[in-house]
Structures are given as structure tokens and as C-alpha cells.
Specification:
Blueprint (H helix, E strand, L loop, with lengths): L21 H14 L6 H11 L3 H29 L1 H19 L5 H30 L4 H30 L1 H22 L29 H4 L3 H22 L1 H7 L4 H29 L1 H21 L4 H30 L4 H30 L3 H19 L9
Helix pairs in contact: 1-5, 1-6, 1-7, 2-6, 3-4, 3-5, 3-14, 4-5, 4-7, 5-6, 5-14, 6-7, 6-11, 6-13, 9-13, 9-14, 9-15, 10-11, 11-12, 11-13, 12-13, 12-15, 13-14, 14-15
């Protein structure tokens, strides 16, 4: 039996073949667990608004700006990763993300809050988020859906762990010190993760010798450059479907606590709703990733979009019953998390892994657009109607439209 030796350089190229790829999964999970705290920034908003007298519209703009920065810098990070490797990109993301939390703790003006949370945290998120999906897809072509799901599942887990922790720490040490404490925690977590992520050697194949799973192969000769990919009609159908499907999920995420409180529930119910959402989000990324390895990516996406179309109005009508609220909320988050996982694997299957960083970067711009449209729909409807009813109906219709689009997608060969 071979001994496992880790050199001081954090390189694990000498680890025996069957296990040499698993440290990458841990690194990807740790990266995403830190980044997922972006979803829990809402825990800081109330004490910040109370101290400065800012409105919810003013503070929420920081997270909207963050969504834009994530999608924009994801593209740049993907471009750099395809050429310079994952560790440089992860290191840049580590510095920017932790710096953003540190600067947020020194906030004394609204523009500074936007720079810290919107620009720095968002940019760091975009850089680091591209790494696990691209690296995991290259190391695990035989179980790509499951591994990418495990890695991006850390994103959902991060909000479930650090969101409640933030609320407790804010009550004890204040929001400024909590931001600073988080900046140190995330810097150390992401630094360790940066040591673990690495591309496989040239010509690498999984331990069983096959380039991909039998039912959903990933041939090594189907790497499609971005310039060719964006000329394929199939790609733009996926892009629009991704945008529509995640718009519905982001709408709920952006309004979760106000929606639960407006449904006449206590603050404790709203706090636990964040945990329920995080569990659903994480489960969707992991379980649906595994499922997509067995029944196919597009079929998995179509199933969850159809479920989401039904779950959205059910969530609204069942909002006053705690059990039904949590069940429907978990389903909505499950469907949302599925898309963030399975679309990454779909991109690798359809267009290869050589240009995956930039290719998926272009595709995930659809999620960035959804991050702007979803909150706008919810806030506009609430202001105009005084309730969220039509926002949830619209989200259901949007999910169904995404289902119709993806149902019509057929895998397309690069030569076509």
C-alpha cells in the first residue's frame, strides 16, 4: 500500500492515483462555504440601518451590486483560470472577499458600504466561485454532476452556518466586530482551499480509465472555444433558460425575511426560514447533481423547473401555516440550488473542460441578470400591490417558461 505524502508546497501530485483527486473536493467545498456567506449579508442589514438611518432600498442595493460583480468577475476569473490555472484565481478571490468583509466593518458611509459589500465581496466571490466547478469537472469526468454538486453545495451550506452565527455574534459583539471576525475566518479557510485546488496533469483520466461515465460521456475531443460556443443557438437557449429559472429563486431569496414577517410570523420563524432555505439549496446542488449523472442534465433541469412552477404559488398560499411554509420554501430553494449545480456540469458536458472557465462564465452571466431582475419584480409588486401575491404568480410562470425552453434543447455537436 502506498503511503500518502503531502509536500510543504501544498502540492499533492505524489498522492496515489485513487485518492489524489479528493483533496480538490475539500478545497472547492471550503471555498464555496466561505463565499456562500454573501447570501447571509441580510443578517447585517437591520443593525446597520438602525445605526445610520438608511432605508432597506439603500442597503439592498449593495447585494444587487454584488450580484452584478459576481457574474462580471466570474467571466474575467474564468478567462484567467483557463490560461494561468486555478490557484492564482482562487488567491485573488481570497484577498478581495476577506478584504471586503474587513472594510465593511469600518463602514461610515453608504458609498463605503457599497464598495465593501458590493464591489470587494462581489468581485472576490466572482473570482473564487469559478474555481471549484472548473477544477472538479476536470478531475471527475466520471461523476461530474455529483462532484460539482458537492462543491457548490458548500455555497448553500455557508449561508446556513454563517448566517445564524452572524446573528448571534452581532447580538454579542456588534456588527462591526462580526464583519472583522468573519474576514479573518474566511481568509484562513480560503487560503487552505487555495492550496488544495489544482488542475489534473495533461492527459489525466479517472482511476477506472474511462474519460467519462458511460451514459453521459465527456469526450476529450469536444472542447469548444468560447467564440464558437456563442454562435450555437443551443447555447443561447440554455442561457435564457438559466436566466428565467434562477430569476424565480433569487426573487424569493432577496425577500425571504420580509416575506415571512409580512405573513404574520415571529422573528424566530423568519430566522429558521433562512436555515430551511440553506438546507434546500444545498440538497438541490448535491442530490440533483448526483441525479443528473444518472438520468441526464437536461431532464433533471426540466423536472425541477416544473416543480418550481408549482411550488411558487403554493409557497404564497401556504405562507401562514408554518409547516407548509417551510416545506414549500425548502422545495423552492432545492429547485434554485439544482440549477447552480447542474448548469455547470451541463456546460462541461456540452462544450468540454479546456475552456470551461470562460465558457461557464458567459453562461453564468444569465444568473447575474437574474440577480437584478428577481428582486426588482418582488419589490415592484410589493410597492404597487402591498403584497407579494402576483410576484409569486409571476415567478411560477417564469419557471414554466424556462421549462418549455429547456424541454426543446437537444445536445448539439461542435461541428453543427
Amino acid at each position: 500500500m502506498k503511503t500518502v505524502q503531502l509536500p510543504l508546497s501544498c502540492d499533492f501530485q505524489y498522492i496515489s492515483s485513487p485518492i489524489r483527486r479528493w483533496p480538490v473536493v475539500l478545497g472547492g467545498f471550503l471555498l464555496n462555504m466561505s463565499l456562500g456567506t454573501f447570501y447571509a449579508v441580510s443578517a447585517f442589514l437591520l443593525p446597520i440601518e438602525k445605526e445610520f438611518g438608511w432605508s432597506r432600498a439603500q442597503t439592498s442595493l449593495a447585494t444587487t451590486l454584488g450580484f452584478v460583480m459576481i457574474s462580471f468577475w466570474f467571466v474575467i476569473g474564468g478567462y484567467i483560470q483557463d490560461r494561468r490555472g486555478p490557484r492564482l484565481v482562487a488567491a485573488i478571490g481570497t484577498v478581495l472577499f476577506s478584504l471586503g468583509f474587513f472594510l465593511a466593518g469600518k463602514t461610515h458611509s453608504l458609498p463605503m458600504f457599497y464598495v465593501a459589500v458590493g464591489l470587494c465581496v462581489g468581485a472576490g466571490n466572482g473570482f473564487a466561485y469559478v474555481v471549484p466547478m472548473a477544477v472538479g469537472s476536470k478531475w471527475f469526468p466520471d461523476k461530474r454532476g455529483l462532484i460539482v454538486g458537492l462543491m457548490v453545495g458548500g455555497y448553500g451550506a455557508g449561508s446556513g452556518v454563517f448566517g445564524p452565527l452572524a446573528s448571534k455574534l452581532i447580538a454579542v459583539i456588534g456588527w462591526r466586530e462580526t464583519f472583522r471576525a468573519f474576514s479573518i475566518i474566511f481568509f484562513l479557510m480560503m487560503l487552505l482551499a487555495t492550496c488544495l485546488v489544482k488542475n489534473p496533469p495533461e492527459g489525466y483520466q479517472p482511476p477506472d480509465g474511462s474519460p467519462g461515465s458511460g451514459k453521459h460521456p465527456s469526450p476529450r475531443n469536444t472542447d469548444v472555444p468560447t467564440s464558437r460556443m456563442i454562435r450555437m443557438p443551443q447555447f443561447w437557449t440554455l442561457w435564457i433558460g438559466y436566466c428565467l429559472g434562477t430569476t424565480a429563486g433569487v426573487m424569493v431569496i432577496s425577500q425571504l425575511v420580509p416575506f415571512v414577517r409580512a405573513s404574520h410570523h415571529a422573528p424566530s420563524v423568519a430566522s429558521f426560514a433562512i436555515i430551511v432555505g440553506a438546507i434546500g439549496n444545498t440538497a438541490g446542488r448535491i442530490l440533483s447533481g448526483w441525479l443528473s449523472d444518472h438520468i441526464g442534465r437536461l431532464k433533471t433541469l426540466c423536472i425541477v423547473l416544473l416543480i418550481s412552477a408549482v411550488a411558487m404559488p403554493v409557497l404564497f398560499f401556504g405562507r401562514e401555516h408554518v409547516v407548509l411554509l417551510y416545506l414549500a420554501l425548502g422545495v423552492v430553494y432545492y429547485c434554485y440550488g439544482t440549477q447552480l449545480s447542474v448548469y455547470a456540469s451541463t456546460s462541461a458536458d456540452f462544450y468540454g473542460t479546456r475552456y470551461l472557465g470562460l465558457n461557464y462564465g458567459i453562461l453564468i452571466l444569465a444568473w447575474g441578470i437574474a440577480g437584478v431582475i428577481g428582486p426588482m419584480i418582488a419589490s415592484y409588486v410589493f410597492v404597487a400591490r402591498g403584497e407579494y401575491r402576483w410576484a409569486f404568480f409571476a415567478a411560477g410562470a417564469i419557471s414554466f417558461a424556462a421549462f418549455v425552453l429547456l424541454f426543446a434543447v437537444k445536445p448539439q455537436r461542435p461541428s453543427e
